[in-house]
Design brief:
The protein is of the alpha/beta class. It is 38% helix and 17% strand. Bound molecules: NADP nicotinamide-adenine-dinucleotide phosphate. The site of NADP nicotinamide-adenine-dinucleotide phosphate has 27 residues, from helix 1 and strand 4.
Length: 294
């Protein structure tokens, strides 16, 4: 298969690259992976998207890891966020249809308002409370309309990796610079090690059931198992990495940010686990594995 991966410089794109280009990749069937970033395929420009696909051979699978992910900045840059998270997804879906390609699209727990109280199922009410969440939801909806079959949407949450700016890397940096840190304790969710999500996506694209032509497009949830607050997560990161920084809990109101954050977005992962026989490791396993690669 010819497999296109967008967002090659992002956490998930780089994690997929790492897997297919290291020893683990030898266990995968021999597919051709093409990784692109905004230099080759700028999702904020319809003409860039058309140009890229017009000048390349067709793909069997498109894995869309690119997104406008700056949650706070999106409140100001609504148009750009909408272009990348919604309109570009519409364009990719139309191209995937024309090319008879499968499309794997990644979405977010921020499509929920966080007031549910129970782990969200794929069928639960969606109600994003910030611009990022709204644009990601618009991307999901347009994809489902254009591709009622042959696509898959994976909602994930609290993604971290060895690459780029993420909560774990920020905590490790600040923890070494400071003696004490205040971290929000009333936002609950499930961390996701990007390598774990990357492995799940690579498993799904070779799954016989997924490869079946005209398979209905569905939404699935994936993160590591368990739910915690950012405060608990920071404490565990410092414990594993043996950083002696004191962590104190604060409320969201004490850490004002431009975008509202949902309070509890933990998601049920039963559907993806059962459909694709995916093992879902606990968040502690994910963070331990991640910190062991440093
Ligand atoms: N990070 C999280 O906590 C989180 C949580 C829930 C869901 N998700 C979803 O998971 C997926 C992967 O996230 P991630 O953490 O890997 O994100 P990331 O590290 O921010 O990577 C996103 C990538 O998208 C690229 N991009 C942005 N605008 C673009 C444009 N106009 N044209 C082409 N590429 C563009 C960025 O390119 P540059 O590197 O050039 O800027 C970046 O490499 C996304 O769909 C995201 O919405 C993430």
């Amino acid at each position: 298969m010819r497999i296109l991966v967008t967002g090659k410089n992002g956490q998930l794109g780089r994690s997929i690259y790492k897997i297919v280009n290291t020893a683990n990749g030898d266990n995968l069937p021999p597919n051709e992976f093409i990784f692109v970033g905004r230099e080759e395929l700028d999702l904020s420009s319809e003409s860039s998207i058309s140009h890229y696909f017009d000048s390349n051979d067709r793909f069997d699978v498109i894995i869309n890891c690119a997104a406008y992910t700056a949650v706070d900045k999106a409140e100001e840059e609504q148009e750009l966020a909408n272009q990348v998270n919604h309109l570009a997804v519409k364009k990719l879906a139309n191209i995937a249809n024309e090319q008879k390609a499968k499309l794997v699209h990644v979405s977010t727990d921020y499509v929920f308002d966080g007031t549910g109280g129970k782990p969200y199922k794929e069928t639960d009410k969606i109600n994003p409370i910030n611009v990022y969440g709204k644009t990601k939801l618009a991307g999901e909806k347009t994809l489902q309309e254009i591709m009622p079959t042959d696509a898959i949407i994976i909602r994930t949450s609290w993604v971290y990796s060895e690459y780029g700016n993420n909560f774990v890397n920020t905590m490790l940096r600040l923890g070494k610079e400071r003696d004490e840190l205040n971290v929000v304790s009333d936002q609950i969710g499930s961390p996701t090690y990007a390598t774990d999500l990357a492995n799940v996506i690579l498993k799904i694209i070779v799954d016989r059931g997924y490869q079946a032509k005209d398979r209905a497009t569905e939404v699935y949830h994936y993160s590591n198992k368990g739910k915690i607050s950012w405060y608990d997560f920071a404490k565990e990161i410092f414990k594993i990495a043996e950083v002696g920084c004191k962590v104190s809990p604060i409320m969201t109101e004490q850490y004002p940010a431009p975008a509202k954050r949902p309070r509890n977005t933990s998601m049920s992962k039963n559907k993806i686990a059962e459909t694709f026989s995916v093992n879902i490791d606990d968040w502690r396993v994910g963070i331990t594995r991640h910190l062991s690669v440093f």
